[in-house]
Amino acid sequence: MPVTPHTLLSWKRQRRPLTALTAWDCLWAKVLDQAGVDILLVGDSLAMTALGHETTLPLTLEAMIHHGAAVTRGAERALVVCDLPFLSYQLSAEQALESAGRLLKEAGVQAVKLEGGYPRLVGTVERLVETGIPVMGHVGLTPQSVHQLGYRQQGQTAAGAEGIYQQALALAEAGVFALVLEHIPPELAQKITQALSVPTIGIGAGPHCDGQVLVTADLLGFSPKPPPFAPVYADVPALITQAAQKFCQEVRGGTFPAPS
Ligand code: KIV
């Protein structure tokens, strides 16, 4: 059965942990979908992991439509959520509606994610949700604000933690179906998770969230400097190197293709 925002809500009630990984094309989407990952996030981290940019900021809406469509073609069961890239939603609720609408119509993704929880953005979330577009929120460390926040853990002071807590409550009230909590203290993530009826999905936010998300390039050993909270589950570059070297050796040595 395909995963929907409604499924995620029921899993929160049942305390069934949610899993999410990022995907950027059809090939990876198929493998991750068949592995049973619940949510495929077309995260704008693909700007760095797949496209070689320094930050997520250069990514365009056109590029996200291209990647979102490829991921959608590879996913059968997982819910596909696509990031709204930097400056495709911050100007106005109308701009956000137009951008999110294009992701749903042209890429076929089922939901969008946006970063932040300041009051004007909460109004934008309300507008998207009342239009029928499922929205995932994202608070704590928000990489589109890297030039303001860096990549440091957020919510370390009492005031900072309270600010993130209030943003989480406001986003839930505005109708997000799930909320990513990135790089915040575990106690704060626990407090937010207990306060919300919608699921929280942590990344570097400790064990008390309703689910966990990781960037697939980090998980598979592709990131030269993965964040401290991102374990490497497999050294995939080593496997690829081995296979590619074997191919080169066999072609150069005349053993592939086999002589007929
Ligand atoms: O872009 C991304 O990969 C993300 C995750 C870090 C949640 O937003």
Please give a structural write-up:
This protein has 260 residues and is of the alpha/beta class. It has a single domain, classed as TIM Barrel (Alpha-Beta Barrel), CATH 3.20.20.60. It has an 8-stranded parallel beta barrel with strand order 1-2-3-4-5-6-7-8, surrounded by 7 helices. Helix 2 links the parallel strand 1 and strand 2. Helix 4 runs parallel beside helix 5, helix 5 packs across helix 6 and helix 6 packs parallel to helix 8. The radius of gyration is 19 Å and the shape is globular. It starts with a helix and ends in an 8-residue tail after the last helix. The model has no long low-confidence stretch (mean pLDDT 98). The site of 3-methyl-2-oxobutanoic acid has 12 residues, from strand 6.
Radius of gyration: 19 Å
What's the end-to-end separation, in Å? Answer: 48 Å
Quantity of strands, as a count = 8
The domain tally reads: 1
Q: What ligands can be seen in this structure?
A: 3-methyl-2-oxobutanoic acid
Helix content estimate: 40-55%
Number of helical runs?
A: 11
Query: Main beta sheet, described?
Result: 8 strands, parallel, barrel
Q: How would you spell out the order of helices and strands? A: HEHEHHEHEHEHHEHEEHH
CATH topology: TIM Barrel
CATH class division:
Alpha Beta
Uncertain ranges? none
CATH superfamily caption: Phosphoenolpyruvate-binding domains
The CATH architecture = Alpha-Beta Barrel
Q: Rough shape?
A: globular
Mean pLDDT across all amino acids: 98
Structural class by secondary-structure content: alpha/beta
